[in-house]
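tokens incoming
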């Protein structure tokens, strides 16, 4: 019981640390099968009020991965879900090494959309750069520093960066949205965001690793 309380305090402490930093600087799956997966994948039961306010009218993502770039609106208040746009997002978040697509967690997309809307509100008009999205188990095992129970394997995580935004600021903003895990990898140039259990960690060049990273 005491250990659980200590873990909670540690998480809140790291969240406050990242939040303060943010404030200071302000073969692939066949299409029919993927359609079926998309239809069966539930939308998040709740959305964080802070995210909901940022994306109350539409949820749009501007993503870049290598030479690929995508702007997709996967939900609007007027029409609800747009599965065509959602599947485009799943495609750009695919496992590149295995050439496999997965139905990504909609809560993760909401977090990324909220983060991007927050940045745009502050004058940062840049895409989210994807370093990693979905991973097959095989790709995950071959990824340096990846946890065996990584949220990437179940479509609940992305490693991201935003041009002109420091990793410290990005991690701080992501942690404030509070949808799951946030990992700050010192010197690696990206931030891990997921919708697993709530936790925050700082990785000093691989010396520390959180479950599900």
């Amino acid at each position: 019981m005491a250990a659980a309380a200590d873990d909670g305090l540690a998480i809140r402490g790291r969240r406050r640390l990242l939040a303060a930093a943010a404030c200071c600087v302000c073969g692939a799956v066949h299409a029919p099968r993927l359609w079926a997966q998309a239809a069966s994948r539930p939308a998040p039961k709740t959305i964080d009020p802070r995210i909901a306010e940022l994306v109350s009218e539409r949820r749009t993502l501007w993503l870049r991965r290598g030479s690929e770039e995508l702007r997709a609106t996967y939900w609007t208040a007027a029409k609800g879900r747009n599965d065509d746009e959602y599947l485009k997002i799943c495609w750009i978040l695919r496992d590149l090494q295995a050439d496999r697509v997965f139905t990504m967690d909609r809560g993760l997309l909401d977090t990324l959309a909220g983060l991007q809307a927050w940045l745009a509100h502050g004058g940062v008009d840049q895409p989210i750069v994807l370093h990693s999205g979905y991973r097959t188990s095989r790709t995950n095992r071959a990824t340096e520093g990846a946890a065996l129970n990584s949220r990437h394997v179940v479509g609940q995580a992305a490693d991201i960066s935003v041009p002109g935004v420091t990793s410290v600021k990005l991690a701080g903003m992501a942690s404030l949205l509070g949808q799951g895990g946030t990992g700050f990898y010192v010197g690696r140039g990206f931030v891990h965001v997921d919708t697993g259990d709530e936790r925050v960690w700082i990785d000093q060049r691989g010396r520390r690793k959180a479950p599900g990273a």
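note: The helical segments are 2-24, 31-40, 49-54, 83-92, 106-121, 137-141, 167-177.
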